[in-house]
Amino acid sequence: MGAVATPASAVIGGVAGSTERDPWMVFLADPHAAPDLPSHYSCGGALVTPTKVVTAAHCVDSVVPGTLDVVGGRTDLRSRAGEVRDVVSIYEHEKVTPPPGPGGEPRPGGDVAVLTLDRPMPYRTLPLATPEEAEVLYRPGTPARVLGWGISREEQAQLPPAQSVTPVLQQAQLPLMSDEDCLDTALHGSPWPVRFDPAHYVCAGYEQGGVTSSGGDSGGPLVVDGKLAGVTSMMIPRGERPSLTRAVTGYSRISTFHDEIAEHLR
């Protein structure tokens, strides 16, 4: 992970979740990229049709179809529960350069991908947030849920890869931030300033910290009112002595990329 707006990996400050409650919660299994991790876990994802999964593009940047699996119905990575499907094709949204502006490392938008499975999954799917719902869905302060198997304690970040995930699915609730607060945090509240287009990202987190997505949750869902509102994309450190518990997370804004995603769900 880089030092600036690092890929997000885990739910910090969460509680145990379940794929029985949230059957659309799946994960990417990559035996080549994650040979030592339980279930070869590499990233999260959301089942949006029986044969389509939405995840982060940076999770599949160097992946070749046929070498990646998607696993559903497995709350505990140490088990063999659930269903496994081969990924037969990958669509990555092209990177969208943010408009020119002062300060900060530019962070492209469009960190979303659609995976096509070789056959249907038998689980309930998660609908996409639409542009028509955006004004209400992304209102600042709106409660959102995040889920993932990444690190759940800051000290895990220093452990060997096999111990850098949380075996049991975690979930947490946190409020959406305003675009102004999100961008201000990224440009002025972080030791590694980053600049992006708020139309491409939505941020979530508490002012005091304590609950956030972090390293291993990449590609996992941000759920608002039963809709896939975001895809876990980047972690934004805060403060002079940043820690995972103080970070906020940037999620690719699904409503912005809805039409391109929908084209690849047919």
UniProtKB/TrEMBL annotation:
Signal peptide: none annotated. GO terms for molecular function: serine-type endopeptidase activity. Residues 11-266 form the Peptidase S1 domain. SMART domains: Tryp_SPc (SM00020). InterPro entries: Peptidase_S1 (IPR050430), Peptidase_S1_PA (IPR009003), Peptidase_S1_PA_chymotrypsin (IPR043504), Peptidase_S1A (IPR001314), Trypsin_dom (IPR001254), TRYPSIN_HIS (IPR018114), TRYPSIN_SER (IPR033116). One of its GO terms (biological process) is proteolysis. Keywords: Disulfide bond, Hydrolase, Protease, Serine protease. Belongs to the peptidase S1 family. PANTHER family: FI18310P1-RELATED (PTHR24276:SF98), POLYSERASE-RELATED (PTHR24276). This is Trypsin. It comes from Saccharopolyspora flava.
